[in-house]
Design goal:
Bound molecules: 2-acetamido-2-deoxy-beta-D-glucopyranose
Order of helices and strands: HEHHHEEEHEHHHEHEEEHEHHEH
Number of helices: 13
Largest sheet: 6 strands, mixed
CATH architecture of the largest domain: Alpha-Beta Barrel
CATH class of the largest domain: Alpha Beta
CATH superfamily of the largest domain: Phosphatidylinositol (PI) phosphodiesterase
Distance between the termini: 46 Å
Strand order of the largest sheet: 4-3-2-5-6-7
Structural class: alpha/beta
Helix content: 25-40%
CATH topology of the largest domain: TIM Barrel
Length: about 375
């Protein structure tokens, strides 16, 4: 059922379509573009940074930059207004757009800029037919669904076969008055992740991050979801690493999550997204609390458990605060005396320089492109 698709203008994506299959791919990538961005084959200094590492490098030993709530990059008042019809069908009211926006650049810009871990949150559209992307009540696009955005990743990996994409997928609740992570949602997700194309482009290993060489040209699936409404064979058939929402302690600065019980493989996770500051704390204080939690986990990655997985989320908000601390002010400040030292991102620069040469693990940023040298500093380029 394609009734929800808007008439996205056709835009040439690949150089020139020369066959029926390339016309079809252009249509798919055009639908994906509100989330994936305009496909273009581009290579800059950061686009293929993984080429610098040998095949036998263990992924848990690498520094891998990522983005939190990656699909929110074009969520403005105009987007919110454009989604009003669907939002009405979902029977939700949506807080201001600043609440939800965590990025400024499209997924393809992220990948071309060196980002290798993405965080996407899906749920059904109001007709329960298509998995689309939300940040809580905020619908991010009608046309771009999980399947067509996956084709963007497949094409990008074809163009950059030295690289990998770590894809975190999470079921997003609160998207609709009657939302439910039911068997239909879980089956739609399962189908998207086990299609013939997905089988070719998702790394088919399970419960372990292996070497860079084994993963080149592939997506590694991070399953921040359960298929608990389906028989267990469905879960068994999925590749990737499982981070059950039941084990992922909410708003915790220090999660130890065993993602492989047989081998006792533990992930050390910081996901303290909403600092529990005393009432009346200003942005400077909220930023300080979040920064402290962030660097504590990154420092642990640099000093301890060299063969364990570290996954740090530098992203945060405190939108219940007065005035609200949107994701943007937490990440990059607002260039006033109100945030004299900037946000978490600016403060991370000297810290990352101090840890030059150390293993930092996977770190997910908000507004990753600010300040401009954040990712270069992280990657030590
Ligand atoms: C961003 O959102 C606006 C408002 O909905 C829309 O007009 C514009 O086309 C979007 N940009 C992209 C690249 O999809
Ligand atoms: C979609 O699923 C939800 C949750 O199960 C249900 O409440 C709603 O009625 C369904 N909507 C349609 C149009 O079938
Ligand atoms: C599992 O690993 C953790 C940390 O790596 C360790 O503290 C714990 O004792 C181990 N448990 C078992 C049963 O080996
Ligand atoms: C953050 O850490 C610094 C250095 O350890 C400490 O002085 C400061 O009190 C901490 N601030 C908060 C808000 O936890
Ligand atoms: C910066 O943030 C503070 C606190 O929310 C706000 O009062 C101030 O108006 C903001 N300034 C700018 C220029 O955005
Ligand atoms: C924020 O709070 C801290 C601690 O109370 C205070 O030192 C600082 O002056 C406050 N900043 C602003 C802009 O009010």
């Amino acid at each position: 059922m394609k009734a929800l698709h808007t008439g996205i203008a056709f835009l040439p994506i690949l150089a020139k379509a020369t066959s029926l299959s390339s016309y079809a791919l252009q249509n798919v990538l055009s639908d994906a573009s509100p989330i994936f961005g305009q496909y273009s084959k581009e290579t800059n200094a950061n686009t293929e940074w993984m080429k610098r590492y040998p095949d036998d490098t263990l992924l848990v030993h690498m520094n891998i930059p990522g983005t939190h709530d990656s699909a929110t990059w074009n969520y403005s008042q105009a987007t919110q207004d454009a989604m009003a019809g669907i939002t009405a069908l979902n029977q939700v009211t949506v807080p201001p757009p600043e609440t939800f926006r965590c990025q400024d650049r499209s997924l393809i810009d992220m990948l071309n800029s060196g980002i290798r871990a993405l965080d996407l949150r899906y749920a059904f559209d109001p007709t329960n037919t298509s998995l689309i992307f939300y940040h809580s009540q905020a619908l991010l696009s009608e046309a771009a669904n999980l399947e067509n955005v996956l084709f963007g990743f497949y094409q990008w990996l074809e163009d950059h076969p030295s690289e990998i994409i770590i894809l975190s997928l999470q079921y997003e609740g609160s998207t609709a008055k009657y939302y439910a992570n039911d068997a239909e949602v879980q089956l739609a997700l399962f189908d998207a992740l086990t299609s013939p194309a997905a089988h070719d482009y998702f790394l088919q290993t399970k419960d372990e991050l292996g070497t860079l060489g084994d993963a080149r040209g592939k997506i590694i699936l991070m399953r921040r979801f359960d298929l608990d409404q389906l028989p267990s064979q469905y879960t068994e058939a999925l590749p990737g690493l499982h981070f059950s929402p039941n084990l992922w302690t909410d708003n915790s600065p220090d999660i130890e999550l065993v993602y492989n019980t047989k081998k006792n493989l533990t992930a050390y996770i910081e996901d303290y997204y909403e600092p529990q500051t005393p009432t009346g704390s200003n942005a400077t204080e909220n930023i300080q609390w979040k920064y402290n939690a962030t660097i504590a986990n990154i420092r642990k990655a640099a000093l301890h458990y060299p063969d364990s997985l570290f996954w740090t989320w530098a992203s945060s908000e405190n939108t219940g605060n007065v005035p609200p601390d949107w994701p943007r002010i937490m990440a990059v400040g607002n260039s006033t005396d109100y945030t004299p030292e900037g946000g978490v991102n600016q403060q991370l620069i000297p810290f990352l320089k101090e840890l030059k040469g150390k293993r930092l693990g996977i770190v997910m940023f908000d507004f990753f492109n600010q300040p401009a040298h954040l990712i270069d500093t992280f990657l030590d380029l």
